[in-house]
Specification:
Helix content is 76%, strand content 0%. It has 305 residues and is mainly α. The radius of gyration is 19 Å and the shape is globular.
C-alpha cells in the first residue's frame, strides 16, 4: 500500500513520509507527523503567552523552542492515545478507517510503547521549565485523558478539546512570569472559544459519518446554524483576547494589534460553505495563520509594555 493510499484525506507532506523506512511510516501517521497543523494549533497558545508576557528576547526564544518540541511530542502522544481509545469508532468513519490502529497496521501494544516514548520527550521538555509551569502542565493530564470519551458523552466535545488544546497558554504564562494572572487566564479562555470555532469547522468533514456512527459533535449540535455558531465563538475569542491585551497594556493601540486576527477570522466565516468538506478543511488549516497573527500582536504588545 502506498503512502497516498494509506493516508487519511487531510494528510500532508506525502514526500516526507515517503523518505521514512516503511516500518516507521505507520507510526509517523499514528502520531500525525504527516499532518503538522495539529502541532501548530497546540503550540500557538503557549507562544502567545510567552510573547505577551514580555519575556526578554533570549529567554522567550528558548521557551518558545521548548514549547515547539513539546507541542510536536505531546500532540503526537495525544493522537496515539485518542486512536487507542477510538479504534473501533474509527473503523466506522470513512475518513478515519485507514488510520494505523483502525486498519490493523499497528498493534495496540506497539501503540502503547510508542505513546510512552513520546511522553518521555514531553517529560524532558517539562523538566526544563520552572516549578510553577511544571505544576500547571501536570494538571492538564486529567482533561487530556478524558478527551477521547467526550464525543460519547456530550454534544460539545469541541469545548473539551478547547480546554486541552489551549492549556499551553497557562503553561506559557506560568513559565514566563512564575505564576498565573489575568492576562494569561483571559488568553486561555479566548483560546477555548477559538478551538470550539475551528474544530466545529473541522467536524463538518465527518458530519454524515458521525451521525451514522452515533458520534456527537458541535457541528451536529449546531445543525443549520454552524456559520453563525462559529462566528459567535470566534467573536467571544476576540473579546477575551482584547481583554487579555488590555489587562497587559491598557491602551487602545494594544487592541488595534488584534485587527488582522479579526479580519482573518471574519474571512473564514464569510467563505465557509458547510457542504464543502475540502473547503472546511482549508479554513480549519488556515488557523495556523490565526495563530501567527495573534503571536505577532502579542509580541508587539508584550515588548511595548
Amino acid at each position: 500500500m502506498s503512502v497516498a493510499e494509506s493516508a487519511v484525506p487531510d494528510t500532508e507532506q506525502h514526500g516526507l513520509l515517503a523518505l521514512l523506512p516503511a516500518g516507521a511510516r505507520p507510526y509517523a501517521m499514528l502520531a500525525r507527523f504527516d499532518r503538522p497543523i495539529g502541532a501548530w494549533l497546540l503550540f500557538w497558545p503557549g507562544a502567545w503567552a510567552i510573547l505577551l508576557a514580555g519575556e526578554p528576547l533570549r529567554g522567550a526564544a528558548m521557551l518558545i523552542a521548548l514549547f515547539a518540541i513539546g507541542a510536536v511530542a505531546m500532540r503526537g502522544a495525544g493522537c496515539v492515545y485518542n486512536d487507542i481509545v477510538d479504534r473501533d469508532l474509527d473503523r466506522r468513519v470513512a475518513r478515519t478507517r485507514s488510520r494505523p490502529l483502525a486498519s490493523g497496521r499497528v498493534g495496540v501494544a506497539a501503540a502503547w510503547r510508542f505513546l510512552v516514548a513520546l511522553c518521555a520527550v514531553g517529560l524532558a521538555v517539562l523538566l526544563e521549565l520552572d516549578w510553577s509551569a511544571r505544576i500547571v502542565a501536570v494538571v492538564s493530564i486529567a482533561p487530556v485523558a478524558c478527551y477521547p470519551f467526550m464525543k460519547r458523552i456530550t454534544w460539545w466535545p469541541q469545548a473539551w478539546l478547547g480546554i486541552v488544546f489551549s492549556w499551553a497558554a497557562l503553561v506559557g504564562w506560568a513559565a514566563a512570569t512564575g505564576g498565573l494572572s489575568a492576562p494569561g487566564l483571559l488568553l486561555y479562555a479566548g483560546g477555548i472559544a477559538w478551538v470550539i470555532g475551528y474544530d466545529t469547522i473541522y467536524a463538518l468533514q465527518d458530519i454524515e459519518d458521525d451521525a451514522l456512527a452515533g458520534v456527537k459533535s458541535s457541528a451536529r449540535a449546531m445543525g443549520r446554524h454552524v456559520r453563525p455558531g462559529v462566528a459567535a465563538f470566534y467573536g467571544v475569542a476576540l473579546l477575551l483576547w482584547c481583554a487579555a491585551f488590555w489587562a497587559r497594556r491598557p491602551d487602545p493601540l494594544a487592541l488595534l494589534a488584534l485587527l488582522p486576527v479579526a479580519i482573518h477570522l471574519c474571512w473564514q466565516v464569510a467563505t465557509l460553505d458547510v457542504t464543502d468538506a475540502a473547503g472546511a478543511l482549508d479554513r480549519f488549516r488556515s488557523n495556523r495563520t490565526t495563530g501567527l497573527l495573534l503571536a505577532m500582536a502579542a509580541l508587539a504588545v508584550g515588548s511595548a509594555g
